[in-house]
Amino acid sequence: xxxxxxxxxxxxxxxxxxxxxxxxxxxxxxxxxxxxxxxxxxxxxxxxxxxxxxxxxxxxxxxxxxxxxxxxxxxxxxxxx
Length: 81
Description:
By secondary structure, this protein is mostly helical. It has helices at residues 3-16, 26-33, 37-50, 59-65, 72-79, and strands at residues 23-25, 53-54, 67-70. The chain contains five helices and three strands; from the N terminus they run H-E-H-H-E-H-E-H. Helix 1 (3-16) packs across helix 2 (26-33) and helix 1 (3-16) packs across helix 3. It is globular.
């Protein structure tokens, strides 16, 4: 995984804290890292394809609001890094 995608995943993992939910805000995570939109798009595509995050069933939630669901695989990738 490239460094920027890993950083993005880490910030999204930190959004969860100790909650039981899996919703993460990719836009807020990218903003905190100072990512450009093109870099964010590439990282999100990679993270979705790798199975670390997934779009909501209602894709408009993800595309419009930047809200994704982090997967157990995504959580494990950060927690075990």
